[in-house]
Amino acid sequence: MHRRSWLAPATIVGCVLCAGATNSSVGAALILDLSKASSDAAAVDGALFTPAHDKAHGNGSEFLRIQGTSGDGKEAGFNSVHGRPLDDKNGSKTILLSQLRPVTIEGRSYFEFILNVSEPQGGGTSSISLDALKIFASDQPAGAALWCLGDPIFDLDAGENRSILMHDQTNGHGKIDMIVDVPSEAFGTNGGDYVTLFSAFSSASGGAESWSALAGPIPEPLLAGAGALVGVFLVRAKRR
Question: Are strands 30-33 and 162-167 parallel, antiparallel or unpaired?
């Protein structure tokens, strides 16, 4: 069990180049099975993936909802200021690094992203696979594509094709399913005010999957891109 404690809200920014390439790894995937309630955290390139089947939803600000419509169980999306790219649903928001509230885990600082899946119960349909997760820090918010955000500061498939298998025990009803903690130093110290999260799933058969971020209050609204208003997270978050 990893011990978490709060750090004061801080602005930590990153620097990336404007050169796309978000290709996923190919070949058979290494499957990290977090589908059991007794599963412990899995570490991938410094990030921690912790199952959280019994924790109440609401300790983060939702910024992305994804739900596929093709019927093949595959879906993908990323938070953007323009429309609904890929399988995004309404509610996609821009995140500023200055909005993220760090936590400490065993003496190290992390930014926290929270996943709530919404899979039906029974009939062997409650499992879902997270097949791609890329997190970007850039000097501009994502538009309709990821091509100008540079290389991700975290990539689940870096060096090896990986998938994370999860089991939804509550059909998304007020619970969260996984916490992803990414070391804050990965975001760098120069430029990169905006955070974009891309994820892709397979074996999805229920409602929308939602991503939230552990965030702190912002003094005033900021403008993003061509006059698009950045959603301001006013969260009173408290980890049990």
Answer: parallel
**CA pair distance 177, 207, nearest whole angstrom:** 14
The label of the residue with tokens 């995004």 reads 88
Higher model confidence: residue 57 or residue 16? 57
The CA distance from 239 to 214, in Å, is 10
pLDDT in tens, 109-148: 999 999 988 777 665 556 889 999 999 999 989 988 888 8
**CA–CA distance, 76 with 66 (Å, rounded to integer):** 7
Q: Length of the chain in residues, anyone?
A: 240
Answer for the pair 143, 154: CB distance below 8 angstroms, yes or no: no
CB 240 within 8 A of CB 120: no
* CB-based contacts of 49-53 (< 8 A; 24+ apart in sequence): 49/164, 49/178, 49/179, 49/180, 50/2, 50/178, 50/179, 50/180, 50/181, 51/166, 51/177, 51/178, 52/114, 52/175, 52/176, 52/177, 52/178, 52/179, 53/167, 53/169, 53/170, 53/175, 53/177
The torsion angles phi and psi of 139, rounded to 5 degrees, stand at -90, 10
How far is it between the farthest Cα atoms of the chain? 49
Single-letter residue type at 225: G
Q: How many CB atoms lie within 10 A of CB 66?
A: 25
